[in-house]
């Protein structure tokens, strides 16, 4: 069961005036999720921060500095339907609506494991987090956005370069990111009658704890080990904010943001 939500940051008393925008960011305790949450908070959004541990969520809120939007930390395991229900109920209770879901929570799983050696439990964990979790959060956001007034909102799914081309020994992660593209397309189509815009950002080598190994050297498609360049995660956050702040009549369906010289186009 999810812990009670924790309010953090500046108090915003006019949360239903049509001016304050409300976001839910999953995986907000670190990496890309933290960077996006901080970017939105500093821009005046109020943000429900979702993650497995409350401590890192509170650190994210503190990183946004005082004077921005209000943060609400909600301990959430996105693979658990009950946790997701608590997350969105807490968000609506505090802020009155949901204008944006950044569906970011994910895991790479055990890296470097050949497909024949990948335990089923590891496969299932990646699928439960990356795909089932994204579906559960999108479904909850969709239900809220359809019924709220004014109607509508935006969902941005965090895909990956792996939604286009795999790395060696990444079958679970790659399969879920390809599936996420299908989820994005279906949600985008089904959301049209209700002013729900859905897009996807595919990211390559943003500098986070998850990508530290890239700079040390990772396995390439030709069997070689090579260091790869990374980019500032703040550049990703600004891209997400741009997508989020478009009017609902406009949508970035797919965006690819990557370190300019990483081995992706032509894979080397």
Structure in words:
- This protein is an alpha/beta fold and 268 residues long.
- The chain is 38% helix and 18% strand.
- It is built from 7 helices and 10 strands.
- The chain has an 8-stranded mixed β-sheet, with helices on both faces. A two-stranded antiparallel sheet has the order 8-9.
- Helix 1 packs across helix 2, helix 1 crosses helix 7 and helix 3 (81-95) packs parallel to helix 4.
- It is globular and about 55 Å long.
SSE topology sketch:
Layout: E1 6-9, E2 22-26, H1 31-42, E3 46-51, H2 54-63, E4 70-75, H3 81-95, E5 100-103, H4 120-147, E6 153-158, H5 171-191, E7 196-204, H6 212-216, E8 218-219, E9 225-226, H7 233-244, E10 254-258
Parallel strand pairs: 2-3, 2-5, 3-4, 5-6, 6-7, 7-10
Antiparallel strand pairs: 1-4, 8-9
Keywords: Oxidoreductase
Family: Belongs to the short-chain dehydrogenases/reductases (SDR) family.
Protein name: SDR family oxidoreductase
Q: Outline of this structure?
A:
Helix content is 38%, strand content 18%. The chain is built from seven helices and ten strands.
Main sheet specs: 8 strands, mixed
What is the helix fraction of residues, given as a range?
A: 25-40%
Number of helices, where a helix is a run of at least 4 consecutive DSSP H or I residues: 7
Give helix and strand order, one letter per element, not per position. Answer: EEHEHEHEHEHEHEEHE
- The averaged pLDDT comes out at 90
- Beta strands, count: 10
Shape: globular
* Alpha carbon gap, first and last residue: 46 Å
Strand order in the sheet with the most strands: 1-4-3-2-5-6-7-10
Structural class: alpha/beta
* Low-confidence spans: 10-17
> Gyration radius, to the nearest Å?
18 Å
Which strand-content bin applies to the residues?
15-25%
